[in-house]
Amino acid sequence: NTVMAAQMTDAHRRFLQVLMSHGIMEGSEARKLHRRCCEIHKVYYAHDKLDDFISTINSHLQPLFMQIRKGMSEGDGRAHYALVNLAETEITKMASDYTENELELFRKTMDLIILSDNGFASSTDILNLADQLKTKKMKKKEAEQVLKVFVEDKWLSEKNGEYTLHTRCIIEMEQYILSNYQDTARKCNICHSLAIQSQVCESCGIGMHLPCVRKYFRAQTEPRCPQCNDFWSLDIP
Questions:
Q1: Helix, strand or coil for residue 203?
Q2: Nearest CA to 209 among 69, 67, 79?
Q3: Are 237 and 210 in contact (CB under 8 A)?
Q4: Which ranges of the chain does DSSP label H, i.e. alpha helix?
Q5: CATH architecture assigned to 185-236
Q6: 74: which of 117, 133, 197, 221 fits an S-S bond (Cβ 3.0–4.6 Å)?
Q7: pTM of structure
Q8: CA 64/CA 60 separation, integer angstroms
């Protein structure tokens, strides 16, 4: 049976192709795609076996230093799947798509987002950096265009003039961020993945994603920190 499971079929290949063209997919979309691929290619389908289906693909992607990774949207807590390149750090991978000063703007934007209290950077703050770039200064209009492209390419998300890292970016860059921002980047105390938008305990400093905060405190009459047991004084989303 295990031998069967490990074989790549046309259903697996189709799934991979579609995911590659999207870059990232929400969990419910990935489940629909899983079913569709199995039906089209008449491959055994089990609705609760998506993760097994993906690990078969991953075992074949290993020699290519690629991997399909599962992550969570920090906004609503939904699962997402993204195709990740393991061979290079993501900033170098981005280098083939962007100019040096665009990359510098992205790095500086990332600094602002990760060092902020809430995981967001305002467009005003980002645009103020545009004429301070070391590689080549950018005009504000030009910088606005570049930010638009970062949003279209799913590196950044924007809401009411506030920018944060896109789910795809977090899934792809988790290792890069954890090793390059060791003093500030933190993992969520509940799901143990990188938390950019998070609430932080005022007593012990642990962080939790907003969806994880919501889930964790749902069952508690009095919200207390899972780490130090002090009263959680922040508003529960």
A1: coil
A2: 79
A3: yes
A4: 2-5, 10-22, 27-40, 50-61, 90-94, 100-115, 123-129, 140-152, 167-180, 210-218
A5: 2-Layer Sandwich (3.30)
A6: 197
A7: 0.86
A8: 8
CA distance 33 to 18: 8
Q: Write out pLDDT tens, residues 66-84.
A: 999 999 999 899 999 999 8
Residue 53 burial by CB count (10 A; 0-12/13-18/19+): exposed, middle or buried? buried
101: helix, strand or coil:
helix
pLDDT tens-digit series, residues 206-229: 999 999 999 999 988 899 999 999
Any idea where the domains of the chain sit in the sequence? 10-64, 91-172, 185-236
- In single-letter form, the type of residue at position 47 comes to H
- What does the buried/exposed string (b/e) look like for 178-201 if buried means 16 or more CB atoms within 10 Å of the residue's CB? eebeeeebbbbbbbebbbbbbbbb
**CATH number at 91-172:** 1.10.10.10
Q: At what angle do helices 50-61 and 10-22 cross, to 10 degrees?
A: 80
Q: Over the stretch 114-163, which tens digit does the pLDDT of each residue have?
A: 999 889 999 999 999 998 999 999 999 999 999 999 999 999 999 999 99
